[in-house]
Predict the 3D structure of the following.
Amino acid sequence: MFYCRYQSPLGILVLAEAEGKLRYCWWEDVMERKIGDDWTEVDSSDDSLLAEACRQLNDYFSGKRGSFDLPLSFDGTPFQCLAWQTLLTIPYGATLSYAEQARRMGREKAVRAVGNANGHNPLMLFVPCHRVIASNGTLGGYVGGTDRKRQLLSIEKEDVSD
């Protein structure tokens, strides 16, 4: 597994790839996930996939990109993978409630499980769990913190040239 650090306007992201697919993206200061002993840190310019991921993040944060186009690898349970696939259907600039996400998955009664799956999303930003909010319109949770979630949603409210 190869990884790099990306300095975003909202903090440092750790990105990791293996076998030609992006596997992880998380906020370094949260460190919910640990960097494995067998991981190798690289300069993003030394790895074409990580370099492309960083370019796309630059475009995202500068308002030039509304979606990402990278090969992704999901490492989770079948339910988690379904939840994360559903997140990919939420358009840039839009939000969805946890209840609506559960409904779209065909699991209407699994709202808490959906929130839990989103909280274990290994590919933050690339799989936009920050676009899911509570049914009452409040932000709900976000592993990166509600301030970051608010800022990400604010970035996405701006026009994008995608």
User: Anything to note?
Assistant: Residues 78-157 form a domain with the Arc Repressor Mutant, subunit A fold (CATH 1.10.10.10). The chain has a mean pLDDT of 92. Helices lie at 48-61, 78-87, 98-104, 111-119, 146-157.
